[in-house]
Design goal:
The complex is a heterodimer. Chain A is built from 13 helices and two strands; from the N terminus they run αααββαααααααααα. By secondary structure, chain A is mainly alpha-helical. Chain A has a two-stranded antiparallel ribbon. Chain B has two domains: 14-49; 55-290, MetI-like fold, CATH 1.10.3720. Chain B contains twelve helices and two strands; from the N terminus they run αααββααααααααα. The chains are: A mainly alpha, B mainly alpha. Chains A and B meet through α2, α4, α5, α6 and α9 of A and α2, α4, α5, α6 and α7 of B.
Chain lengths: 291, 291
């Protein structure tokens, strides 16, 4: 049965050979994911075997050259950064989407879209540079040293607002016009219609966008590397310098060997799994909406 | 017994709620505009101070504090050329296979779709880990432009495939039927009719991929490396512009001026690339509405 289907997809004609070549390219492209998983897992395996998953979570500190492999402070820092950034970016992003669709005067719509897209295309290293040169000195005036959790949260929020805004805009635009008309016919004003009819209808698309933005914040390296201070400790206040999982990899990969190098691959693997879970959840919401 | 209902009605009056919501939306949009403008103006003003023609062609001197970014621009160009030269044909072939040859709803299509979505969400630092383990160490390319370019190619592949596939699916089926009625082979109908019609979408995808690759930093730290000399072959290490900004800002005291000038060059290039991509996709949109 299978052989019959394959031979009908790749008949022995010029077209069949071309289809075979194109199919090989598609296999190669979708095989890259497997290749990445195999190599990252393969490099992480020695540490997973000799150190074990438990010690990555139970060791109190991160001194990989002296055999202490605690990832918990950096995991906590990564979560705190992503959660903080989302707390700011989610409401602002949704509000920006609503603003552009329903509040902005006509002449302002196109330039404002350009601004959001410009921000979306800004390299994270430029955001990091701005945070380091402008924001960190300002925060240091309130409470030294300035490079801290809050600096990372603010710049990450600026980075992911466009993600939330673009996804929310698409979700809001896909709400049928009849919903608006029905709400207006019931005597609801613009705000009441938004709150009670349109936003609930676009709920799942917006939630998907927020989850994707969270995944981006969790996986971001340059911004957190440049402005959060890079000291391994539990985030116990907004002004504490912290080190995220991603910046740890970037900082130590250059000189790490043996178990140390392998444990950096373990943190990369952990990061990938977390981001998978978030994008999977975002995808589920999207698929349910289409179904 | 006092009756509070009139008070409650006044506090939760729809007018008050609507007004507050309206204000919050305008405030969010204003804050985002202010932050984005602050960021862009900061980079433009401080960057313009150090930017002239000499800066674009000179060699960096004193670890980048003085001199220009000539060799760094060459390395960046080579890394991007490798990434596009590998990803563009592979991505286009895979997209043609998925959109034109594969029966939709097949198991392979579903698997490819999932694997591309997951690949698109992997954090860039994990791409860096993979590129280091696979291209630099396993394939023995070392820290080289080739290794960095290939890592970026893996990273932008999902974006290229998705946009090209989408563009191909937009071409009306009547055109394919017409080609078949004229006795054209499947491949020549794709090559001469469907692909030219999808040209703008494919180009937009390529430009978006180019922009993504140019903005990337974390994936290059341990693949293409830090060397800021003029590269003499693709197996030399070469420092990308984004990495140069990071290095000047974080590791070189007194590198701010040139970091800002480099950031301005990067930002201007990205505005041109992303602007072109957008004009292609807007052109598509207009054509579809007109048709």
């Amino acid at each position: 049965m299978t052989s019959l289907r394959i031979s009908s997809l790749f008949p022995r004609t010029p077209d069949g050979y071309i289809a075979f070549g194109l199919g090989a390219a598609a296999c190669l492209a979708s095989g890259i994911l497997l290749l990445i998983l195999i190599f990252v897992f393969g490099e992480a395996w020695p540490a997973l075997r000799t150190i074990g998953v438990v010690r990555f979570l139970s060791d109190g500190a991160w001194y990989p050259t002296d055999g202490a492999f605690g990832l918990v402070p950096m995991l906590a820092a990564s979560f705190a950064l992503a959660a903080g950034a989302l707390t700011i970016a989610a409401p602002v992003g949704v509000a920006v989407a609503i603003f552009r669709l329903h509040y902005a005067p006509g002449w302002m719509k196109a330039p404002y879209r350009g601004l959001v897209l410009l921000l979306a295309g800004t390299p994270s290293v430029v955001l990091g540079l701005w945070g380091l040169m402008v924001l960190v000195p300002l925060i240091a005036r309130i409470e030294p040293p300035g490079a801290s959790l809050i600096a990372g949260i603010l710049v990450l929020a600026l980075m992911i607002v466009p993600t939330v805004a673009i996804a929310s805009e698409a979700a809001l635009e896909s709400v049928p016009r009849s919903c608006w008309s029905a709400a207006n016919a019931l005597g609801l004003g613009r705000e009441a219609a938004l709150l009670n009819v349109v936003l609930p209808a676009a709920r799942e698309g917006i939630a998907g966008g927020i989850l994707l933005a969270g995944a981006r914040a969790l996986g971001e390296t340059m911004v957190v590397l440049m402005i959060t201070g890079n000291i391994v400790q539990m985030p116990d206040g907004l002004f504490t310098p912290v080190r995220a999982l991603t910046s740890n990899i970037a900082l130590e990969m250059a000189y790490a060997t043996g178990d140390h190098r392998a444990s950096l691959f373990v943190s990369g693997l952990a990061l990938t799994l977390l981001v998978f879970l978030l994008s999977f959840a975002a995808g589920t919401g999207r698929r349910r909406r289409h179904a | 017994m006092p009756d509070f209902s009139s008070v409650r009605r006044r506090i939760f009056a729809p007018q008050a709620r609507d007004g507050a919501l309206r204000m919050a939306i305008w405030a969010a949009a204003g804050i985002l505009f202010a932050c984005a403008a602050w960021l862009m103006l900061d980079v433009a003003v401080r960057g313009a101070a150090g930017l002239d023609w000499r800066f674009l062609v000179d060699e960096p001197a004193r670890a980048g504090r003085a001199g220009g970014i000539g060799p760094i621009l060459v390395s960046t160009g080579l890394i991007l050329a490798v990434a596009i030269a590998v990803a563009a044909p592979l991505g286009l072939a895979a997209a043609i296979f998925l959109a034109e040859f594969l029966p939709s709803g097949s198991r392979f299509a579903a698997w490819t779709s999932i694997s591309l979505d997951v690949l698109a969400g992997i954090p860039s630092i994990v791409f860096g880990l993979f590129g280091n383990a696979f291209f630099s160490v396993w394939l023995g390319m070392g820290f080289s432009i080739l290794s960095g370019g290939l890592t970026l190619a893996c990273m932008i592949l999902p974006l290229l495939i998705r946009t090209a596939e989408h563009g191909l699916r937009m071409v009306p089926d009547e055109w394919r039927h017409g080609a078949a009625a004229l006795g054209m082979s499947r491949f020549s109908s794709v090559w001469r009719i469907v692909l030219p019609a999808a040209g703008p979408a494919v180009t937009a995808g390529l430009l978006l991929g180019l922009g993504r690759a140019t903005a990337e930093t974390a994936a290059l730290v341990f693949t293409s490396g830090y060397v800021d000399r003029m590269p003499s072959s693709l197996l030399d290490s070469g420092r990308a512009l984004s990495l140069h900004i990071y290095d000047l800002a974080m590791n070189v005291a007194g590198g701010d001026r040139n970091a800002y000038a480099s950031a301005l060059v990067l930002l201007l290039f990205l505005i041109v690339v992303n602007g072109l991509a957008m004009s292609f996709s807007d052109y598509l949109l207009r054509k579809r509405i007109a048709a």
